[in-house]
Input
Amino acid sequence: MNDIALLLAATLASGTAIALAGLGLLLNEKAGIVNLGAEGIMLLAALAGFAAAFHTGSAMAGFAVGAAAGALAAALFGVLVIWLNTNQYATGLALSILGAGLSAFLGKDYVGKKLELGAVPQLPLLSDLPFIGTVFFRQHPMVYVAIAVALLVAWFLFRTRSGLVLRSVGESPESAHALGYPVRPIRLLAVMTGGALCGLAGAFLSVAYAPLWVEGLVAGRGWIALALTTFATWRPVRVLLGSYLFGGVTMMQFFLQGEGVQVPSQFLSMLPYLATIVVLVLISRKPTWIRVNMPASLGKPFYSNN
Amino acid sequence: MLRLEVRAQPSAVMSWLSPVLALALTTLVATALFVALGKDPLQGLKLFFWEPIKSGYALGELALKATPIILVSLGLALCFRANIWNIGAEGQLLLGAIFGGGVALWVTANGIDVNRWAFVPVTIFAGALGGMLWASITALLRERFNANEILVSLMLVYVAQLLLSYLVFGPWKDPMGFNFPQTRSFDANTLLPRLVQGSRVHVGFVLAIAAAIGMWLFMQRTFAGFQLQVGGLAPAAARYAGFSARRAIWQAMLISGALAGMAGAMEATGPLGQLTPHVSTGYGFTAIIVAFLGRLHPAGCVMGASLLSMFLIGGELSQTRLALPAALTLVFQGLLLFSLLACDTLIHYRVVLRRKLQGGAA
Output
């Protein structure tokens, strides 16, 4: 029973990084932009956040710097794809390569460093509940932040006027433009907000989850988050639930090893990546599911002469 | 205020000038980076642009590095022309190394005496088979289930890395290797013959150049190659003409998988002579940059691969001589692709000065 509680608790924590990044990418994609640079953004932000937390001793500073670094890296990508109409896939890949290189290059001195942060505050009473307390109430605050962000994004996209405008930019930028909305600045704003969330996810990994910096710390979570938006048919709450699914699969390997399952660790480590492929196949199998839910202008540049 | 104006025709001049501009831009940033790091920028740039070509031996090393990159980038150029985003060539290359290296290891372990020249096609064919196998997973899932090939092929890179790691940490580990994660050294007769005495460049380089010529013929002179490119440029036209999009996916993925697999097998049985977890230093990703830099043209791929090999060698040299982290090369690679994409804007647009109040030309 206690094992199960710990496994579930670890699942929520492990899914949180993917959830934050996935929600950020969802915002991008709702505005019509696919950002394949997520992995690179998360790596840069993970390093920036770790460095900030290391030098200030404050986790909050780490998260703030991580989010800012994410927004900045995403802005670089955004300017290229939105104003210069560069290919979104290629530009995202460039960001992923640059992010992997730059974070490894600049992070050399932070490898093996330990963070001296205070203990994470626990909720009184609730955290003492048997089972439920372990699963839900002894988590890092960022776990609750991710849940709040999911609800906030859902509310913003589907219940506010600004959310409607953002979606219209992703569905038909020409119509939004004809109505007088500044398509390009809106897209940049969406890309930067998405980048900030990816950055927060990266900083969560290096400051709270790991907590350490190594080269390639993000380990494909950016790519998994990209797959997740499709898997969730572009719905925020489904992104959250889907990321817990991936968190569970990731944690499963440690659980199985702990239970003494005789499978080489490498095969267990393949699970999250194989699971990503499986869910992609499951959701893409019916083309109509994708077509109905996918923002109509996803990945397409917007041309106009002003 | 500067403004972009659409060109009536994409500029052919800019299309070839853009990689040069991008290289200049990257060099500029690199110079600034060396200065910021307190290193002599001239000395730094020399490591990247002079050391790799300064002697016959250096050129041999350059050709050795370029061999896998040429092969992989040729396949990717074909895929990208067909608008199929195979991002996982790295995984296909690793499977090629596992298959090709596996055959060599098997021959070595069983003490089978093989003829060196007769064995070359065996390893290379095994590698191509491995790469095709890995690529066919992506092709199948894309063609059958419409699953996004970018994400599937990329996920398979992680799986391939773990598979290789399992093999060299587990069943294929050298029993006399002091527990290092590596296979035993392959028998000398299973290794690729070298081209010239005193250089490590092997027959694979000739194969890579032949592949470039073959790819040019395929793209420019065959109906199948034409169909693939129409499918990429104008899917609707291709459908109307009755060109099968499914066949295009299979063709492009299998060809690029085979080329990447060959590259992997030749790394294992060429310069390495054994399998380790680090068979590839990201050749599959470097080749993506090369394909774009080479304008998706086979000759361009060869030139791009030579340039990026200079980057890789320069990176290794700055690690040993300037004590800079190995990731420096990756930084430069990312910068180069970024600059290239930005400069490519000039193919379709020209920069003009916006004049105020000019008759509502918006």
Observations:
- The mean pLDDT of chain A is 92.
